[in-house]
Design brief:
Blueprint lengths: L2 E3 L13 H6 E8 L5 H5 L1 H4 L5 E3 L8 E9 L5 H5 L3 E9 L5 H10 L2 E6 L10 E15 L2 E8 L5 H12 L3 E11 L2 E2 L6 H9 L7 E2 L9 E4 L4 H5 L4 E2 L3 E5 L7 E5 L5 E7 L3 H6 L4 E8 L2
Length: about 290
């Protein structure tokens, strides 16, 4: 995303936080184990002294992979990560004989916007929802086992996607394995095992944490003047004159990450205009206060 400067300012170098500061204002990236719910998997963090530990995007007990966990005050932005794109590697078993062409044709037909009926076992109301499937790529075929990678909108049920693809082929299919390989900006190779995290934590090694700033890499950003910090901390909206610089793709009513001149994330705003107005307007509200991290 291109950064547009509205007015010049002096920026301070980002200051790395201490271990204690990160305990209150950070996130953890864990590789969730198989056979345990997301909630039970993260419960050990409370035993380590964290008041809040909220995971961003639930994984079923038998699903492994990327599980971002927001700690203490950082828990306020869990919804931002929960709504980010997800990537999975899935293995399905096809119930009847098929060809590679059938698989690839089906993957193509299920790429784009699809209708998905929420599964009966889901915790949310059962209804048809629109979901975007950005890509489906075949990895391997071994007899009736098909392994593939899918990049999709948050809230997509991969088990249901596989069931529907099986119905479309006329063969039937069901999921036997699922691993989340990406959640928003975070990849599987960045994640720690539970044991590795505990080992680093007990040594007070800051590498067991990730700063909250990493969680908003994929959304638009705005930097505000020092004089606007106190009003922001009290819940006030930010006016155009308080903007220093911003990214170029801000749209009306979209979520934007708000930074101070020390390049620290201080909250999330809801834009009341677009990037053109952020540059050219002098009067009026640019964005309202949605999440305050000060």
């Amino acid at each position: 995303m291109k950064i547009i400067v509205r007015q010049k300012a002096s920026y301070k170098k980002y200051k790395n936080k201490t271990f204690q500061e990160l305990m209150n204002h950070s996130l953890v990236l864990l590789n969730k184990e198989k056979g345990v719910s997301s909630r039970n998997f993260t419960r050990f963090l409370l035993d380590l002294g964290f008041n809040k530990a909220g995971h961003a995007g639930t994984l079923d007990p038998n699903t492994t992979g990327v599980l971002p966990i927001l700690l203490n005050r950082g828990n306020k932005i869990s919804s931002i990560l929960s709504l980010s794109k997800k990537e999975y590697i899935a293995t399905m078993i096809v119930h009847k004989d098929f060809t590679k062409d059938m698989i690839e044709s089906t993957f193509k037909s299920f790429t784009g916007e699809i209708d998905q009926l929420v599964p009966k076992i889901s915790a949310v109301k059962r209804q048809v929802r629109k979901r975007n499937i950005y890509s489906i790529k075949l990895i391997s075929i071994n007899n009736r086992l098909v392994k593939f990678k899918v990049l999709c909108q948050a809230g997509t049920y991969i088990r249901k996607l596989i069931h529907d693809m099986g119905e479309s082929m006329g063969t039937g299919a069901h999921m036997i394995e699922l691993e989340r390989t990406k959640s928003g900006p975070f990849k599987l190779n960045e994640c720690l095992s539970k044991d590795k995290f505990i080992k680093l934590f007990n040594k007070k090694n800051i590498n067991c944490f990730r700063p909250l700033e990493d969680a908003v890499k994929d959304i638009n950003k705005v930097w505000i003047d020092d004089g606007a910090i106190i009003p922001w901390s009290k819940g006030s909206p930010i006016y155009f004159k308080g903007i220093l610089k911003f990214t170029s793709d801000i749209k009306l009513n979209s979520k934007i990450a708000v930074f101070n001149t020390s390049n620290e994330l201080i909250g999330i705003g809801i834009s009341k205009s677009n990037s053109d107005d952020f540059l050219n307007k002098d009067e009026g509200i640019a964005f309202r206060n949605y999440i305050n991290l000060i």
